[in-house]
Write a structure and sequence with these properties.
There is one protein chain. Helices cover 54% and strands 11% of the residues. The protein is mainly alpha-helical. It has one domain. The chain has a two-stranded antiparallel sheet. Strand 1 and strand 2 form a beta hairpin. Helix 1 packs antiparallel against helix 2. The N and C termini lie close together (6 Å).
């Protein structure tokens, strides 16, 4: 089996996030290259970290905590979708 070029792999678009009444409001889009998806999730996590730090340091910043929470939820969905691609069995080339 030949190793697959990671940049040729794309997201599956099967991972939902932001549930309301047991229904997902959003889903990761399919067809995004894995390097691009990981670059984007890195940016999401960086901003989530900054917001969480602000929320921890100042009073009355619960809006920062919620924004951080939703960014982390989006990030987890993207990472979970990428992991599903990387763990999927591949046919021999």
């Amino acid at each position: 089996m030949t190793a697959t070029n990671p940049s040729a792999l794309t997201t599956l678009g099967v991972t939902p996030f932001c549930f309301h009444s047991d229904q997902p409001l959003f889903r990761v889009n399919s067809g995004v290259s894995l390097p691009e998806a990981l670059h984007h999730v890195s940016n999401l996590l960086h901003v989530a970290e900054l917001l969480a730090e602000d929320a921890a340091m100042a009073r009355d910043t619960d809006r920062y905590a919620w924004a951080s929470h939703y960014l982390q939820e989006m990030s987890k969905a993207v990472i979970d979708d990428v992991v599903k691609v990387l763990e999927a069995p591949r046919s021999a080339e």
